[in-house]
């Protein structure tokens, strides 16, 4: 069994703990936004440990759009590298947990559509993109074969 290492960012660790200990009935909004969030469970690319990250809920049908914005910081969040290294994740959306596979959407009509969905769900993403020189990564999390 892999070890779970909570985030070194206290607010992230607290959010995940509240969300999960309640079985997905508390801590359902991200910080002070009042907007819904999901928890991504992924594997650390350096440690091999289980990591958990809350992100804004952006749905595309049965799929989830994951935006690696880190508030428009100059670098991608660490979880970006984890998803690139191992695309198999679990997504907790309230009381439901899904086995999913992520892929980064780099360009084209699909990326534009997913980015627009994300900005519609959380308008600050647009501001984050404007304040950084990097192109903020967009992932789509799709149900794994057994979940469909």
Task: Provide an overview of this structure.
The chain is an alpha+beta fold. It has one domain: Electron Transport, Fmn-binding Protein, Chain A (Pnp Oxidase, Chain A, Roll), CATH 2.30.110.10. The protein has four helices and seven strands, in the order αββββαββααβ. The chain has a seven-stranded antiparallel beta sheet, sandwiched between helices. The longest helix has 14 residues. The model has no long low-confidence stretch (mean pLDDT 95).
What is the count of β-strands? 7
Strand percentage lies at: 25-35%
Rg estimate, integer Å: 14 Å
CATH superfamily: Electron Transport, Fmn-binding Protein, Chain A
Spatial arrangement of strands, main beta sheet: 2-1-5-6-7-4-3
Helix content: 25-40%
Biggest sheet overview: 7 strands, antiparallel
Shape type: globular
Mean pLDDT: 95
* Name of the CATH class: Mainly Beta
* N-to-C order of helices and strands: HEEEEHEEHHE
Please identify the structural class as seen in this structure.
Answer: alpha+beta
- The CATH topology assignment is Pnp Oxidase, Chain A
CATH architecture: Roll
Low-pLDDT segments: none
Number of helices: 4
End-to-end C-alpha gap? 26 Å
Number of domains: 1
Write the layout of secondary structure elements.
Blueprint: H1 10-21, E1 37-43, E2 50-56, E3 59-60, E4 63-67, H2 78-85, E5 88-93, E6 96-104, H3 108-121, H4 124-130, E7 138-143
Antiparallel strand pairs: 1-2, 1-5, 3-4, 4-7, 5-6, 6-7
Please describe the structure with a list of short key phrases separated by commas or semicolons:
4 helices; 28% strand; alpha+beta; single chain; globular; Pnp Oxidase, Chain A; 7 strands; seven-stranded antiparallel sheet; 148 residues
